[in-house]
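FAQ

Q: What does a record look like?
A: Structure on top, sequence underneath. For example:
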């Protein structure tokens, strides 16, 4: 099997926007402390948004992007933890104002409403706002109606029909990044990739990516794309945070080797790393983990609470918030193209955007890496005693 790997994985980062040239004196230069400790409810003064290449593709994405899973009321798994249309619109507008150029949604988010709202709000902004969406799962996740055999999966039948439906909901003629939401071992990889390639050739999709893949399936997909001369996955969207580092075993090294962009979902572990959850304290009313009690029980281990204390200590050192530190830890990873923010309010978004101003030093990184290190298991632990795997 021959696969072309990326000899280097430079981020291809750039700084965009109307800003003074480096070294130019301005009439107002806020101190670092005033920038980081902005009064809650007021947008912080932030350094300009960085843009990075999506892997080795030509697509440039803001290093922080906006997740649309909370856009609109939900009848399924997001019920009670999504945003009203008005709140979601305010978050969207603030994100665009702050330089975010990528909105990530999916056909199943809030039974299609997320795509509809995203399409309505990006209208007239398609020259500066990229839209990413996904296919794989049935609308309603089987909770609102019984799905048919072609209402899910990664067959040609489902991919093409799902894409057409997403284009209608988004009210657009193309999707900038079309992602498969999870691997499907019931369908041949070449069938999935050929269907995606056809959508690219038809101009309905600009780039394709994947999400929630195992390392072996990802590399098999790259091999298939090379062998059959189809569009390849340019990015992988995956869960990565200080509490969930499993992707570092295989998927992140594969992305590094083959030059794939990395989009990070759940960077704050459903809000557990935001700083609002503390050991032996009541759960904040209306918070996501107050609704998702099983998730909170799974996350709330002694190791997790110890990590939160380390996170708080680093945040106090930098005079910022735990959320900003947890996000800055990811932004500093050279493999990361963009970290997806799932804010429900503008206050949450402003807090997350503070990550742009946080630069962790070697001591900070070491403390967080050690506090969050999982049991890597065999063979990773064995290899890791001698060299990086």
């Amino acid at each position: 099997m021959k696969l072309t790997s990326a000899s280097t994985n430079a981020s291809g980062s750039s700084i965009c926007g109307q800003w003074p040239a480096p070294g130019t004196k301005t009439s107002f230069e806020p101190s670092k402390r005033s920038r980081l400790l902005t009064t809650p409810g007021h947008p912080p003064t932030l350094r300009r948004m960085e843009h990075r290449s999506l892997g080795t593709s030509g697509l440039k994405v803001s290093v922080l992007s906006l997740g649309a899973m909370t856009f609109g009321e939900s009848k399924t798994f997001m019920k009670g933890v999504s945003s009203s249309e008005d709140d979601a619109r305010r978050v969207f507008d603030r994100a665009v104002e702050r330089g975010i150029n990528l909105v990530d949604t999916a056909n199943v988010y809030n039974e299609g409403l997320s795509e509809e709202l995203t399409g309505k709000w990006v209208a007239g902004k398609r020259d500066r706002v990229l839209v990413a969406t996904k296919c794989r799962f049935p609308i309603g996740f089987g909770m609102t109606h019984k799905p048919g055999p072609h209402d899910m999966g990664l067959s040609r039948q489902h991919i093409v029909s799902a894409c057409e439906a997403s284009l209608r909901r988004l009210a657009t003629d193309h999707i900038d990044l079309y992602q498969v939401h999870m691997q499907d071992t019931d369908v041949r990889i070449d069938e999935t990739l050929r269907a995606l390639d056809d959508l690219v050739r038809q101009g309905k999709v600009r780039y394709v990516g994947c999400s929630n893949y195992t390392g072996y399936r990802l590399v098999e997909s790259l091999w298939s794309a090379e062998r059959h001369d189809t569009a390849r996955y340019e990015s992988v969207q995956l869960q990565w945070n200080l509490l969930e580092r499993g992707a570092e075993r295989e998927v992140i090294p594969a992305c590094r080797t083959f030059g794939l962009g990395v989009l990070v979902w759940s960077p704050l572990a459903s809000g557990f790393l935001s700083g609002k959850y503390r050991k032996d304290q009541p759960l904040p009313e209306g918070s996501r983990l107050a609704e998702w009690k099983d998730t909170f029980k799974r996350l709330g281990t002694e190791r997790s609470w110890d990590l939160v204390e380390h996170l708080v200590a680093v945040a106090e050192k930098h005079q910022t918030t735990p959320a900003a530190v947890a996000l800055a830890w990811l932004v500093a990873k050279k493999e990361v193209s963009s970290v997806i923010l799932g804010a429900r309010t503008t206050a949450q978004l402003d807090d997350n955007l503070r990550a742009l101003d946080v630069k962790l030093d070697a001591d900070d990184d070491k403390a967080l890496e050690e506090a969050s290190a999982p049991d890597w298991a065999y063979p990773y632990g064995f290899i890791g005693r001698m060299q990086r795997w």
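Q: Is there anything notable about this one?
A: The first strand starts at residue 14 and ends at 15.
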